[in-house]
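Alpha/beta hydrolase (Aeromicrobium piscarium), 324 aa
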Amino acid sequence: MSVDWTTDLLGEPYERHVIELGDDPDGEGTITATLVRRASTGSPRAAVIYVHGFTDYFFQTAMAEFYADRGVAFYSLDLRKCGRSLRDGHTAHYVSDLAHYDAELDESLRIVREETGLPVYLAAHSTGGLIVPLWLHRRRRGTGSGDTGIAGIMLNSPWFDLQGAPWMRGVGTQAIRLAARVRPGLVLKLPEAEAYGSSLHTSRGGEWDYELAWKPLGGFPVTVGWLSAVRRGQARLHRGLDIGVPSLVLRSDRSRIVSRYSEEVETADAVLDVRQIARWAGCLGDEVTSVPIPGARHDVFLSRKEARDHAYEVLGDWLDRHLP
């Protein structure tokens, strides 16, 4: 099956392909996903598919160039209702079940395997770092033989548990699940949280320029239906997965979760509790390499230069050990 590629908004050498997904199982009309690739020359030795997190999309060309320089063909997926795939009438990032993403993940993997014929690695950030191993676990069980076509995964600050007070992971989660059955689109009233976005974007003195309509400084609204889906996914992770491939888990060495910007946000995870990431990393199964990056932000590859260079060094060493 031929794939039509057109020039992406990032310009050459980036191209995109729209994956038609039909009617939204959550009732918000027609949906698509968007696969982006860095058109490559030469003979790569592997391929990677990157999956973003919540209030995010692919714009990190420095990461794509890093992979390309190491002989890895780079692809990235903007999931349904996210980034390039967000349309009028959509609730940004909303799904009632993380398994809905299997459709675009399966199709992306099919395209990449067909185009390259190479071992495929997965990279993911934050909520994507929960979505990807859950999908891989289901896919591995579904193949029977365990042949998923995936050779390894690299997770950047994956969302393995709900941060905050302990009651939020107990009675709070039960309340969210009950509310999701009745009013899944109900928006949670959460404190204003622009601290992380303010540390990144050029409009606030940061290094990174991206589309604020797709990655607003304060994040998209959080609905109870979506959060309930995340909590079910996290509960499944906590029971242990069998992804069947080696994994690298990167995180900051400390958290500083605040709603308003301060200098501390520049050198800590302002979104997730890194202790939870460390605690649950072993639930992935198979070989797990878990590494804290001192002074890193929530997205370790959007950290200040020293921490960012360290993260790329760790990733490069892991790739050197695992790439064919």
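The two ends are 27 Å apart (CA to CA). Strands lie at 6-7, 14-23, 30-38, 46-51, 72-78, 120-125, 150-156, 247-252, 288-293. ok done for today
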